[in-house]
Design a protein that fits this description.
CATH superfamily: Cupredoxins -  blue copper proteins
Largest sheet: 7 strands, mixed
Order of helices and strands: EEEEEHEEEEEEEEEEEEEEEEE
Distance between the termini: 13 Å
Radius of gyration: 18 Å
CATH class: Mainly Beta
Number of domains: 1
CATH topology: Immunoglobulin-like
Helix content: under 10%
Number of strands: 22
Structural class: mainly beta
Shape: globular
């Protein structure tokens, strides 16, 4: 599984394309998890010398600035990695999504914020423009061709030309899997959205840590993904009323 089929437990081949998606064996079922445990841990990168890239905007420099961080490698002093996605693979029963949780991405000073987001399948995502210039939200679904080489397919493209403009879209989150988000007006702008079928997914914080709570007791596969540092899948066992500790190191092989 590692480094080959990167986003899926099922592969669908259409023509010469392989659509790679996260698919569970059955629909997710909300159940009582009063006997739940939790998973807490961190994600690190093996090479602490890795530095984030510096971007030089090609337009609107008077507003965007002369340089911007790419946010591909945000590494703490002790090697912990921000913006990794951590999720339980294949869990089919558990707690509900928080009904008050909102899922949104905004253009802010020529960057998408947040840079990485997890969002529920079938949910609604809010897209906003806080900048005094045109931006667009161009979503691509991440795919693999018949030789398992990474590629992407257009999903949706919406322009937000006015500052303060906001739209809410449901179509974008219809299917589980990894989405790449670009702005065609500012080619360097990049964000990632992983659409999931259950709430047991998180993005690591600035200190590289994550928490998954309300997890039913059992043994699971925990998937960790980072846009530049690669991916890994590890085993974890959750006991009732206890917290399982997981610390994962990624070795810098980019996936996709």
């Amino acid at each position: 599984m590692k480094h080959l089929i990167l986003f899926s437990s099922l592969i669908l081949t259409v023509g010469c394309l392989t659509s790679v998606m996260v698919v569970t064996a059955s629909a997710y079922e909300v159940v009582d998890v009063s006997n739940a445990g939790a998973i807490m841990g961190s994600v690190s990168v093996s090479d602490m010398s890795l530095k984030d890239e510096t971007i030089k905007p090609h337009r609107n420099q008077n507003y965007c600035g002369e340089t911007l961080p790419a946010e591909k490698y945000l590494v703490s002093a002790n090697g912990r990695l921000q913006n990794s996605i951590v999720m339980i693979d294949g869990i089919t029963r558990g707690k509900p999504w928080n009904p008050r949780e909102e899922f949104a991405i905004t253009n802010d000073k020529c960057r998408f914020k947040p840079h990485v987001l997890v969002a529920p399948k079938g949910g609604t995502i809010t897209l906003g423009n806080d900048d005094p210039m045109l931006h667009n939200f161009h979503f691509y679904r991440m795919l693999r061709d018949s030789d398992l080489r990474p590629m992407k397919r257009h999903l949706s493209n919406m322009a937000l030309p006015q500052q303060g403009q906001e739209i809410r879209k449901k179509k974008i989150l219809q299917n589980p899997g990894l989405l790449s988000l670009k702005c065609n007006a500012h080619f360097y702008m990049q964000a990632w959205v992983w659409v999931v079928e259950h709430p047991y997914a998180a993005v690591t914080l600035a200190n590289g840590t994550f928490t998954l709570d309300g997890v039913p007791p059992g043994s699971y596969k925990l998937r960790v993904w980072h846009e530049s540092a690669g991916e890994d899948v590890v085993d974890v066992t959750v006991e009732s009323g206890k917290t399982a500790s997981v610390h994962v190191t990624l070795y810098g092989q980019r996936s996709p």
